[in-house]
Amino acid sequence: MLISAKGLKKSFSDNVIFENVSLTIEDRCRYGLIGVNGAGKSTLISVLLGEADYDEGEIYRKNGMSIGVLKQNSGLVRDSSIIAEMRKAFEDVEKAEKDMRRIEGELAALGNDNADNSEYKRLSSEYASKQAYIDSRDGYNIDVKIKTVLNGMGFSDKELDTPINILSGGEKTRLAIARLLLEEPELLVLDEPTNHLDFKTLNWLENYLIDYKGAIFVVSHDRYFLDKIVDNIFEIERCGLNTFKGNYSAYLVQKAERYERRLKEYAAQQEEISRLQTYVDKNMARASTSASAKSRQKILDNMEIIENPEYTEKKIRLKFEKIKDPYKDVLTVSDLTVAVGEERKELCSHINLDIKKGDKIAVIGDNGIGKSSLFKTIQGIIPHYTGDVQWGKNATISYYEQENLNLSPDKMAIDELWDRFPHIPEAQIRRVLGNVLLTKEEVYRPVKVISGGERARLALCIIMLEKSNVLLLDEPTNHLDLNSKEVLEDALSEFDGTVIFISHDRYLLNKVPDKIIEITKSGAVVYDGNYEYYKEKALDVKPDAEEKKQPVKKKSEGTYRSKEQRKADVAKKNKIRELEDEISYLEKRISEIEQEMASEEVYSSFELMQEKSIQLEEANNRLEECFEEWEELSS
Description:
By secondary structure, the chain is an alpha/beta fold. It has 22 helices and 18 strands.
C-alpha cells in the first residue's frame, strides 16, 4: 500500500470541496480520477501528496516512497540542455558508480591477503550493495533508455544539446513527462498528461505506461487514454468519491447500472412513503389506531430519504435534426490549396475530398497543418486561390467554431439565441437553453463571462435550432465535461445528416466516424474506418510494411534502380539483420552476466566481481553502438 485515506474533508470557508472521501492506492495499480471541472480533483491530489492541508480524516503514506508528479500544463523550465536534464534522472546511479570506483581503490589498497579482514568484508558488502542498486535501476543502459524515451516522446529530430529554454510550451511538457518516466518513481501522478501530444506520441506513451513497474494515478478527460491505462476509476461527484473497478468503458456500464438501481430504490421508497403517509393521514385522529399511526410517522421521520437520481445526475439533452435532405454529392473539393494571411502562407495543398450524403467524417492532422483553415476555406470565410470547392444542391451548413468566436461576447446568452431566431417564442428558447443546463439567471449573463463549457453548450443550441443537413464541427468536445461528451457523441451518431468534424478526442474518433481523413502538407489521406482502423494502418506500421504500402511507380517516373543500387540495398538489409542478431545476443549475454554477478561465488570475490563488471560495461557499450548503427541504417 502506497497511500491510504479515510474520511477526508476539505473546504474553503463555507464551501465544501469534498467530504467523507476514502481511497487506497496500491503498488503497481493504475487509477483514473475523473469529475466535472471544479469538482476538486487537483485539490484532492494536493491533499493526498501532502501539499495541502485538510479539515478532517486520516492519510497514510508509505515511508520513503518515491513520487513523480506532472502538474497540468506544466513543463521543464531549465537553463540546461535536453540531455543534461535527462541524465539528472540518474544522478543516484552515477553516484553509486563513483562510490564503486572509490571502493575498488580502497579494496586494492588492502590487497587480497586481507580478504578475511573485517574492513575488507565491509567494503565488499558495500560494493555488492551498490552493484545491486545499479542493476535494479538498469544503470548500464542509461543512454539507451534516455534515447528510447526521448524518441518516443517526439524528440527524435532534436539535438540532445538543445537548450530547454528555447523549446515551446508543449515541448517542455513532453520533456517533463520524459524526465518522470526515466526517474521511475514508485507512484507516478499525472494531471492531464495527454495535452500537447500527437497521436503517435500518445500511442507510444500508452504502450510504455502499460508496462510501467510502479503505480499510476492520473487525472484525465481523455477517455481513450483512461481505457488503455487504468484499472480503477475514482469519480468525484457532489463532494463525494465513488469507486469503480475497471477502465473508463467499464465505469460507464457500472455507472448506468448504479443509476438504474438507484432509480428503482428511489421509486420503491417513494411508494413506501406514500403508503405510510396515507395510513398516518387516515388513522392519526382515531383513538383506536392513533398508536399505530404514530409508529408509522416515526418510521417516516427517521427514514433516510433517497435523492431522485434523475434530479441529481442532470445531463444535457441534444438532438440534431434537418429540415431538408441534400443531394447525394454533398461536397466536392478538387486540388485545393489552403493559405492564410495577406502573404498567402501555404498550410497544405492538393486537398481532394468527395463527401456524400450521410457521411460521418473525422478530419485529423498535425497542429498547424491547416485543419481549421480548411473548414473556413470550404465555407468561403477565407478565400482560396487555387483549386475548386463545390457544395451540392440543398446542402445547408451549421458551423461550430473551435473557440466559439462567432458568438457575440457582450450579448446575454438568451439574446444570443433569440436574436438569431426571433420567430421562436421565448418559452421555447428557454426550453432549448434548459436542455443544455443553462437556466434561471445563467441565461442573463453576458457570453464573455460564462464558462467555456457554457459557451460550447450555447453554440450547440444554435446548431440544434438551425436544423441544417451538414454539420461542420471544429473540436466540439474541447470544453465539454465527460457526461456532455457522451451525450454529444450519441446525438452525432443518431443524426441522419452529414457530419464533418475536426478532433483530437480519440474516444470520439472511435465512436462516430465511418471515415477518417488525415490532412498533410501535400494532400489528404482517406482511411475507411474509425480511429482503431487508422491507428492500425498509420501508427503501428513497421518500416517494411510501410514501404509495401507505397504505390509502385513506373520506371518513367524516375524510380528505376541500377544493379549497383539494388546491390547496396541488399547489403544494407543484411547489415540491419546482422545488427539485430547481435543486439539479441548482447541482451541475452547482459542478462547472463547479471545473473552470474548475483551468484555466491562472484558476490564473495572482489576480483570476480570486478571482472564481471568490466564484461558487463563492455557488453552495454557495444549494445549502445549497435542500437545507434541500427537506428542510422533504419531511418
